[in-house]
What does this fold into?
Amino acid sequence: MHQEKSMFRKPLFRFCPLFLLTTALLLSGCGMQVQPVATGAPALTPVVTLVDDSEQNPNIFVDPAVLQDALLQALAAGDIEQLQMWMTDPVLTGWWRGELTDEAPADAVKLLAEQLGPDSNVTLVEDADLQSLMGGKDPLSIPREEAGVTNAFLVSGWGEDGLDEAILFISRQADDNVKWHGWMVVQGGFSGARLGGLQPYTDEANGYSLFLPKDYGVTVQSASQVAIFPQGEAGDPGGAWISVEPANGRSAEQIVEAVKAELPDFEFPPDTAMGIEDAQALVVSGLPGQDSTRQLFMVRNDKLYHITFTPDDPQLGEPYRQMENLYAMIVNTFHFLPE
It folds into this structure.
């Protein structure tokens, strides 16, 4: 057996070098012909695709909150040109309890330039409950439905003197971008932001509600009349009286004419007309008396709502300023209760 093993090993060692040389040559030759193995996997694509002029367009927004911040910055800076680029076409403009119109962007920015003072301080009114301030009206229902308005927010510091507020509207476009659809001015404001806050007041018996500056008190003088004045103020501060009585079939126009007939020698300034919900209101300014007064007359369901504001004299300084603030708050937030 031992000899058989020796005879078996000799041929193996004799051919092994030749086998190794042949294998090496074959592998060397094959190495020049190796091709990648096809896996069937798709080719990788870059995470970011670069294209010419790939910087983000600063005039295109998809997030309403980002557009809102941009609008506030541009309004505060008075950047009218930039604001025009963010507008829809047409643009909604107008007044709360007044006329609303559609304007071309070029015309809208002219109005905007007139309404914003040189030292504009437009700021967001945080947590403004617009629906409550507007008597339950949804602010998104004010623009046309086809405008696609999805957001509305309130700003203060509007107007040449910065005493007004405005509701700004943002709409979603067909391409899913968002644009500025316009604004509605609230003359004198109604959030109480610049007056330190506000408080609600409701007269259930006489069928109305409103908001007042938070430092004002209401005194019930009779079943049909209340007095509204700042609390704890000495002297003659600015305030108002609200009375409700039967109209006896008369319109607001007829009542105003009767008031004027009692003062034949007085030169009346032009009346101011406005719509307060479904009633027409007429305001007569500068009526003479112990103190000059501004009076609002409104008839609804044969009831006369008569509001007297005092003093209506700019020369009186602070009391007149108080009256103006109270006038704006009451006129902008007066609502009729459901019957």
